[in-house]
Write a structure and sequence with these properties.
This protein is an alpha/beta fold. The protein contains nine helices and seven strands; from the N terminus they run H-H-H-H-E-E-E-H-E-H-E-H-E-H-E-H. Strands 5-4-1-6-7 form a five-stranded parallel beta sheet. Helix 6 links the parallel strand 4 and strand 5. It is elongated, with a radius of gyration of 23 Å.
């Protein structure tokens, strides 16, 4: 009797876990397209996770499929249903384990690789979308993080990066430079890179500017926490010695951008 109760309790806990994961994934997958009109691979992956976690819940509790009698019969008695369930469970276990390990590496790069004490390294603000002549919210958060660092390190220089995208009327570098000047940073401390179109080019062009200015290769990459691992990877490839300052990310965008960034890191490692 005791073992039966324990199995039932464990079954309920597993069911609550998969239900919670499905709801969490669907909720955060829908925020970017509905509220920000953004759709990218991270959104698609989170929607897929919601679907797969929901299917796992149906296998554990087939009576939920009562509105679809044929599907419920297949879940309960189909010949291949147990095999599909095992494969689904294996895919979820492997995927979630890989996600956890990948996330630990990203967290280490973002929050456990800060600027060295007493070292005035050059800040490099990675580009992000602009809205007219103003920074988007994500870019403003990056600039706020850079401003805090520059105020603490009055001798440090800053490189603002980013060219003009298809939907932009001003380059990201120019908008970032203007914002910093308006918030008290002397133009003499700001180097502007306004030709790059992606993160890799941000860091490559920044490295060239630093070399021309004779500033050395010690840099502080300023970007969202999810972006730090790839940013620091590209910085090292450009011959720089990076640390990182993570900026804030709008909470509704973080899960999908976190997943998209993992795909970006894999691309950087294996394809570039």
């Amino acid at each position: 009797m005791g073992r039966t109760m324990k199995r039932r309790t464990a079954g309920r806990l597993f069911l609550w876990f998969w239900d919670g994961l499905a709801v969490f994934s669907a909720f955060f997958a829908l925020i970017p397209p509905i509220f920000y009109r953004i759709f990218h691979p991270g959104v698609a992956v989170l929607l897929l996770l919601a679907l797969v976690a929901g299917m796992k819940g149906l296998f554990l509790c087939p009576h939920r499929a009562a509105p679809w009698p044929s599907f419920r019969r297949w879940l309960e008695n189909g010949r291949c249903a147990p095999l599909v369930h095992r494969l689904l469970s294996l895919a979820l276990a492997l995927g979630l384990t890989a996600e956890a390990l990948f996330s630990l590496v990203m967290i280490q790069a973002a929050w456990f690789h800060p600027p060295r004490q007493g070292e005035s390294a050059t800040a490099v603000v990675l580009g992000c979308l602009t809205m007219g002549d103003q920074p988007s919210r994500m870019l403003r958060y990056r600039l706020e993080a850079a401003l805090s660092y520059l105020e603490q390190q009055p001798e440090a220089m800053v490189v603002v990066t980013g060219g003009k995208g298809e939907r932009e009327t001003h380059s990201e570098g120019e908008v970032s430079a203007r914002w910093l000047e308006e918030h008290g940073i002397s133009p003499a401390r700001i180097l502007v890179e306004n030709q790059s179109s992606n993160t890799r080019e941000n860091l490559e062009q920044a490295a060239l500017l630093l070399e021309q200015a004779g500033l050395g290769n010690q840099v502080v990459v300023v970007s969202d926490g999810f972006h730090q691992l790839r940013g620091q990877l590209y910085a090292k490839r450009a011959g720089l010695c990076p640390t990182g300052i993570p900026s804030r990310t709008p909470w509704g965008l973080l899960p999908t951008y976190w997943l998209r960034e993992q795909m970006g890191v894999c691309k950087a490692i294996f394809l570039e």
